From TrEMBL:
SUPFAM superfamilies tied to this protein: Glycolipid transfer protein, GLTP (SSF110004)
Protein name, UniProt field: Ceramide-1-phosphate transfer protein
Source species of the chain: Apaloderma vittatum
Pfam families xrefs: GLTP
Domain (Glycolipid transfer protein) ranges: 1-131
Length: 169
């Protein structure tokens, strides 16, 4: 809902996020749901059953391992939280995108995303769009949420590193 509230500028990220959530929900409720009760069980199941190829994009492009992505959100929300009042949201978003998702998108998508980010509102207006109160209250909410996002991201990265999944094609 948060991404959708940001309007058409974020529609491509929002659609991608919704699709990824749907993929994971389908796995968690599907025939193999017992293999998707935790991140650890998902990785073990998908590797054991050849559902993810660490060397090339396999015939299973929607594996759970390929679907988990938190880095952009973590970077972007941290940038919003720690940025100055006059920080440009477009710069925060572009920097976060370039440090995370851009490597996985073709050139055309990367350029379209960069152009779209230029239409983002100011940082304070953006914080108000979050609909949790004043910009100061939004910053406080981000301060509460980010440690959890960081913890989940760290656990994911550690698990993926153990199984050489950090650089999935």
């Amino acid at each position: 809902r948060f991404l959708q509230s940001l309007g058409t500028v974020f529609s491509f990220i929002s659609k991608d996020a919704v699709a990824k959530i749907q993929i994971m929900e389908n796995y968690c409720c599907g025939e193999q749901r017992e293999n998707y009760t935790s991140l650890q069980s998902m990785v073990e199941y998908e590797l054991t059953n050849g559902l993810v190829d660490i060397h090339k994009r396999s015939e299973h492009p929607d594996s759970g391992c390929r679907t988990v992505a938190l880095r952009w959100l973590q970077l972007f929300l941290e940038g919003l939280r720690t940025g100055r009042e006059d920080s440009r949201t477009s710069v925060i978003c572009t920097d976060s995108y370039n440090a995370s998702l851009a490597a996985y998108h073709p050139w055309v998508i990367r350029k379209a995303a960069t152009v779209a980010f230029c239409a983002l509102p100011s940082r304070n207006a953006f914080l108000e769009i979050m609909n949790v109160g004043t910009p100061e209250e939004a910053i406080a909410v981000l301060g509460e949420a980010l440690p959890y996002i960081c913890e989940v991201y760290g656990i994911t990265q550690e698990l993926f590193a153990q199984h050489q999944l950090l650089d999935l094609p």
